[in-house]
């Protein structure tokens, strides 16, 4: 037996979350609706969206699924984690590059969520059933510090704080070329790239406001080490902002880093960049207000070995030059 939905958002549905709309129109629980949306079985105007996506009048919500093929809740999996801090309310994790934050298409197990469920079984009912405990994300190939909520109250407080940007997020990145000046701010709008829905773009006059503050820490002949602070936290924000101003992250497989590698004249640098395997982006600092005590807290993560090794290559290259 097949379940399906084919419905258009009305004026009364303006601002309604997608998972709420689907639950109402398809006779599903909200958690089941969220799972169907996450797996791509339910689309909005042919495009995959998040359960939290808010609808506008006229948008078409459609999809079909086999009854009984319900997506299972994430399973616990014994993956080693580097825990920077934990108490009854929160845990701070130093996420390695290559670890996906939560299950999704193509990544159903061996994610951070699966590891968290093994270490903190009680978080299964904290927040979204498909991503329990998660209040913010890092890209799969970005490393660094993340906070996880261990209780429902902590999840609500942290989610509200992240939505209002009441936190500090700083990153270290190695990018191609030289940025103009010692520091600055990139402020744009961001939205899905109309030519590739898996990518974002800041070359738009609409979408969501995105603000990145940057400071150059070191310069090499062909690269720069930059500290970045996010005022907003849009998908791929740093990667898009640097790439679209002509300074893609070294090793970025999506936003121009590899094209930058091919343009390098020096074969040693070309080989070093081509062998990186991920963008040189690390979430080095996270400042939050503790959701239970109200205490300001700052957590840091040291540069991972692959970024240190790449910086050593750049140092050696410039000394030879």
Q: Per DSSP, what share of the residues sits in E-state strands of 2 or more residues?
A: 25-35%
Helix content: 10-25%
Calculate the mean pLDDT score and round it: 91
The CATH H-level homologous superfamily of the largest domain: Pseudouridine synthase
**Structural class, from helix and strand content?**
alpha+beta
Task: Provide tags for this entry.
3-stranded antiparallel β-sheet; Pseudouridine synthase; about 325 residues; 8 helices; globular; 13 strands; alpha+beta; Structural Genomics Hypothetical 15.5 Kd Protein In mrcA-pckA Intergenic Region, Chain A
Give the topology, please.
Blueprint: E1 2-8, H1 18-26, H2 30-38, E2 42-44, E3 60-66, E4 83-86, E5 90-95, H3 112-119, E6 143-149, H4 152-163, E7 168-176, E8 183-193, E9 196-201, E10 208-219, E11 223-230, H5 237-244, H6 257-262, H7 267-274, E12 281-289, E13 296-300, H8 305-320
Parallel strand pairs: 6-12
Antiparallel strand pairs: 1-3, 2-3, 4-5, 5-6, 7-11, 7-12, 8-9, 8-10, 10-11, 12-13
């Amino acid at each position: 037996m097949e379940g399906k939905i084919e419905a258009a958002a009305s004026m009364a549905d303006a601002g309604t979350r997608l998972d709420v709309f689907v639950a109402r129109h398809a006779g599903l629980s909200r958690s089941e609706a969220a799972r169907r949306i996450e797996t791509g079985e339910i689309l909005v105007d042919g495009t995959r969206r998040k359960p939290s996506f808010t609808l506008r009048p006229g948008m078409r919500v459609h999809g079909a699924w086999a009854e009984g093929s319900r997506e299972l809740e994430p399973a616990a999996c014994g993956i080693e984690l580097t825990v920077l801090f934990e108490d009854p309310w929160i845990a701070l994790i130093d996420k390695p590059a290559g670890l996906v934050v939560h299950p999704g298409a193509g990544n159903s197990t061996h994610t951070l969520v699966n590891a968290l469920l093994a270490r903190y079984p009680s978080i299964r009912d904290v927040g979204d059933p498909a991503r329990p405990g998660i209040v913010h994300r890092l890209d799969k190939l970005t490393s660094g510090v993340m906070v996880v909520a261990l209780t429902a109250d902590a999840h609500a407080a942290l989610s509200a704080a992240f939505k209002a940007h009441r936190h500090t997020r700083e990153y270290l990145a190695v990018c191609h070329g030289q940025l103009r000046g010692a520091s600055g701010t990139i402020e744009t709008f961001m939205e899905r790239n109309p030519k590739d829905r898996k990518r974002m773009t800041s070359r738009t006059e609409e979408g969501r406001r995105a603000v990145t503050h940057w400071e150059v820490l070191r310069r090499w002949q062909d690269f720069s080490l930059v500290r970045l602070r996010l005022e907003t936290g849009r998908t791929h924000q740093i990667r898009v902002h640097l790439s679209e101003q002509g300074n893609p992250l070294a090793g970025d497989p999506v936003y121009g880093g590899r094209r930058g590698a091919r343009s390098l004249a020096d074969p040693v640098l070309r080989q070093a960049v081509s062998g990186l395997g991920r963008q040189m982006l690390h979430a080095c600092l996270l400042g939050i207000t503790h959701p239970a005590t109200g205490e300001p807290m700052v957590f840091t993560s040291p540069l991972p070995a692959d970024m240190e090794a790449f910086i050593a290559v750049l140092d050696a290259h410039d000394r030879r030059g």
